[in-house]
Amino acid sequence: MGTPHRDSPVLVTANYKLSFDLLRFELAEVDCWILVVDTRGINVWCAAGKGTFSTDEVVLMVKQTRIAELVSHNTLIVPQLCAGGVSSSLVKKKSGFRIIFGPVQARDLPEFLERDNTASEGMRAVTFTLMERVELIPVELYLQLKTIGFVLIAGFLFAWIGPHMFSLQAIIQRTLHLGMATLLGLLCGSVFVPILLPWLPCRQFWLKGLWPPLLVALCWGINIYPHVTIELLSLSVWMSVFSSFQAMNFTGCTPYTSPSGVEYEMRRGIPVLALLAILALLVWLVAPFVD
Amino acid sequence: MQTMRYIDNTTTLKLNVDVCVGCGNCILVCPHRVFEIKQKKATICDLNACMECGACANNCPVDAISVNPGVGCVEAYINRWLGRLFKDRGRSSCC
Ligand code: SF4
Ligand code: SF4
Question: Domain limits at A44?
Fold first, then answer.
């Protein structure tokens, strides 16, 4: 980067495209060396958790690139978020290089370098801003397209049960309603929950995930009142279950949920959700006979 | 991150103050500012902010910290539970 010389700092990053590009962009004005650790294309945070951004990888790269021959110092600046995988004392022992943990955000790097490799308290803490949350939404949605398709097919196969039996129109209508409810559930759990995360009551994510569908169902119900049918009730429950599950899934994307906490809420959430899902399904199946 | 808090009293983080040499590494690496130095020793000042990333334990020179590290991921747990149910080892991680 730039025109690095023997005293320029050495920065370490993952070969995750976003991390690398970001680093390059932020350091456009700085002369430095960049050491890229092969994390097989995943980002620093995940790679540290999975053990691909590890002490051994860093040591390996130091040896492979013979960086020691290029610079006159023995300091590596690594992203703070890889500390879960990289142990500074072990790297020192195995490669002779001293590790300095840089800031969490690449954008703080220039300031960090200027201030003699010290990070302010603010640079050390992770954040989870609205923008950071919104950026996660597309992936969450994309991953569930399969589920929607599956629900539609399963719904179509079961929708003929009822007094209407072979009326194609009724079958299609029932399938579409089910698909709509599923889609709304997904929207609630994977769009509204991430956006509204800090403001939704309760700390457990599956409980957070129940608020948006509750509101949606309420609005929906009021709108079509008094034509509320058993089918719509069952679909509302299904929508809430799906939203709640998606919200719980979102724990994997946040930088503040602990695995023990996730296990804790899953032990409570999953049984309740499973029960509600079965209930919703049964009611949906008998609904045509009752409505 | 003070606006976003997860479930209290679930973390597996433990600090053995007797062993701590007060080097400050844990304070440096923790992304949630869980530690503080008081009288040349680390203390836990915000236990419930811990997300069990394992960074502190990994960088403590004297192994004063123990934590069960991992990524809080629903799919990983489901796979693990299913694996236990059907007596085979499935995938245990997801991301
Ligand atoms: S496990 Fe991670 S979040 Fe918890 S105290 Fe250690 S460094 Fe901080
Ligand atoms: S890293 Fe270990 S020895 Fe150093 S201050 Fe923290 S607990 Fe103490």
Answer: 10-124
Which of the residue ranges A112-121, A168-177, A190-199 would you say has the lowest mean pLDDT? A112-121
Distance (Å, rounded) from C-alpha A200 to C-alpha A255? 17
The radius of gyration of chain B's CA atoms, rounded to the nearest angstrom, is 16
Q: Which of A124, A156, A180 is the last residue of a domain?
A: A124
Tell me how far the alpha carbon of residue A25 lies from the centroid of ligand 1, in angstroms: 29
A57-71, A150-164, A254-268: lowest mean pLDDT where?
A57-71
Q: Which of B33, B68, B70 sits opposite A124 (nearest CB)?
A: B33
Give the DSSP letter string of A100-140. Answer: EE--SSGGGHHHHHHTTS---HHHHS----HHHHHTTHHHH
Q: Which of A154-168, A276-290, B3-17 has the highest mean pLDDT?
A: A276-290
Range from A35-49, A131-145, B16-30 that averages highest in pLDDT = B16-30
Nearest C-alpha neighbor of A50 from the set A58, A60, A39: A39
Ligand 2 environment, Cβ below 6 A: B 15, 20-26, 42, 60-62, 64-65
Asked if the Cβ–Cβ distance from A260 to B25 is below 8 Å, we say: no
In the block, residue with structure tokens 């906490």? A261
The answer on pLDDT for B2 being more than 60 is: no
Q: What is the dihedral of CA A97, A103, A106, A109, to 10 degrees?
A: -80
Q: Which residues contact A281 (CB under 8 A, 6 or more apart)?
A: A234, A238
Strands A10-14 vs A75-78: parallel, antiparallel or unpaired: parallel
Domain B14-69 has CATH 3.50.50.60: no
